[in-house]
Amino acid sequence: MRAPAPDPRSRRRPDLRMPLLGLAAWAGGLLGRYAGGPVLLAAGLALLAGWLLVRRGLSRRPVRTGAAVLLVAAAVAASALVRQEQVRASPVAALAADGAVVTLEGTVTSDARVVAGRFGDQVLVRLRVRRITGRGTTYALGAPVVVLGHEGWRDLPLGAQVRTTGRLAPSDGPDTAALLLAAGRPSVVAAPDVWWRGAAAVRASLRASVAGRPPDQRALVPALVDGDDQGVATDLAADFRATGLTHLMAVSGTNLTLLVGFVLVVARWLHVRGRWLQVVAALGIAGFVLLARTEPSVLRAAVMGSIGLVAMGVDGRERGTRALGVALVVLLLVDPALAVAPGFALSVLATAGILLLAPGWRDALACWLPRWIAEAVAVPAAAQLACTPLVAAISGQVSLVAVAANLAAAPPVGPATVLGLAGGLLGLAWAPLGRVAGTLASWCVAWIVLVAHHGAGLPSATVDWGTGAVALAVLSVGSLVLAGVAPVLLRRRSTGVACGVVLVLAVAGRLPAPWAAGWPPAGWVLVACDVGQGDALVLNAAPGAAVVVDAGPDPAPVDRCLDRLGVTRVPLLLLTHFHADHVDGISGVLDGHPVGAVETTRLQDPPQGVREVTDAAAGAGLTPLAAPYGVTRRIGDVTLQVLWPLPDSPVAGPGDGSTANEASVVLLVAVRGMRLLLAGDVEPEGQARLAAMLPGLQVDVLKVPHHGSRYQDLPFLLSLGARLDLVSVGADNDYGHPAASTIAALAGTGARVLRTDLDGDLAVVVHRGVLGWQTRR
Fold first, then answer.
1. Could you tell me which of 632, 628, 627, 630 has the C-alpha nearest to residue 613?
2. Where is the Metallo-beta-lactamase domain (predicted)?
3. Overall average pLDDT of the 361-377 stretch
4. CB 258 within 8 A of CB 418
């Protein structure tokens, strides 16, 4: 029997012009963001040159392509610079620079998000300001503003027009004109439009359809359908990150492909044909955007999902690659800020991996496997490999179980997503029917939760990988080599099976990490772990033993930090106060590291933090006690003394956490001849009291209070004479931490200032009595 003739299109060289234009647009966005004003002139000249070349209609294809590349890059760069200048020159930005009290009207453009604030939990909302009055002048404009408010902002519907009063502060984000510290509850001027109300009703019905299910299932179903992951527990989120399943909880192209694909199946069943199917697909995409919100991440996911639908059709690889290039150009022209968004880069890389790598890998595996299995393996593997270098650059880790976990979790993802949407829609008509669909969806996600938990528990589920230039270069080159040789290795049964066996053995055992050699550094006495926006400090008490001060906002980062340091037991876990960014990671310390005692501040507030610590400690057979004031204790090589709060300070608070920072435990530590002051989040008032109580106090190392905020008693901090200042802070946080004024004042003394957001884990090192430091990204 003669083999079928190969498709002539398979021999045709791929047309890479549109992907090349997409890369040019991306480069233009990066130039516009980072190169500053001089690029504007260069962009203008490039635009002119590109336009002239195109207008002349030059016949040579390379010249035309080069002209188009120049034109696109210059256009995106110019767009980025103009947008930044519009934000900087906005009257809102000028009022923010003066700290003006204003009254404004605007449209709510994001869902409310609860964040840990300086005086307890606060609500973060984004507004598009239409009218603002400040310093006696009223302006009509359109400017993006971030609002930090209290409980009254929590339930504002998306699309509502509101009026509020507050004080403006400068924004750290180049795409936000100001930060508004709202003075009170907003007043709703106009309700959202009907389509926003409809989307909100579906989301509420979706949550109601799974309300009676177990917590992980109840939270994951809405996350799969519309990206609403606010109810996902930190432990589950950590397991999803370790297994490469995080994309399931975010709004991604996969969501759109599944939901719109389901709509198209229903449409075909109803005998919709021809161009009307395209209309149905367009309406499905619009409905998805409304359901998941018109935020940049959602629009990005809608575009990438649309490319996925294109790729599923005839000649999908060629058409999908062209569509990806077009999407890059259009998205970056509309929103140049996407050029520096990690989520955008991950979406593009995953889509490119599926389009460019997956077909070859699938065909190679199909030589000895059923085609459906080959495709199921090739698609997640190609997407994961394409994203691996960037994921390592962001997280410092490489997941070895991601492909297997995605493969295992894939079967119920489609049914869970479709059933979840059905639960939301059917619940609008009849709540019991919606609950039936929601229950079926929750049964599907129960398997996904099981895969995440078991995958994350494997010995080498993730491998720590440095984020330095050499480590990332090695990983990038290795990924490129693997992408090239994979079809050759996978085409033969023997080598394909051998690759699978090697991966299984690597995951089942603990792998050494030679790229992370030198960590922890010899002679380390303290490490400030990079746990994001929070504190987690580790004091070296003895080989394998450490005193841990605070646990950060998430169990996974502090757990990994302790493992990297070789900590196997914790004689003392001391929590400076009960805010989430200091205690929510407590299970990361208690699980797998025997803890001798748990101590806390005297003030039992906020209640949710107290409950979390009490319950977690009880699970480990411990009862938290107040850290004893003034008592000098020695634990191994560490001598510590509590300087604050005072023994007569309150033990009950107002219940909102507003006084918790001021009640932070402040520790004076002596280790290997060095004195360290670990100041928690103590406020300026407490710092001033300490200055009066301890005149002449001198230390070698200072853990800067409250993540380097501008609320400091700088004379006290500067009088300590610290040679090394550590700032534990999360990158791109919403509070403006650390304040430039605080950092400048500390650095002005000649001290070295290190920050976890820029430098990663911070190690204080003592070698032959000499103070030093080392960082790990």
1. 627
2. 533-732
3. 84
4. yes
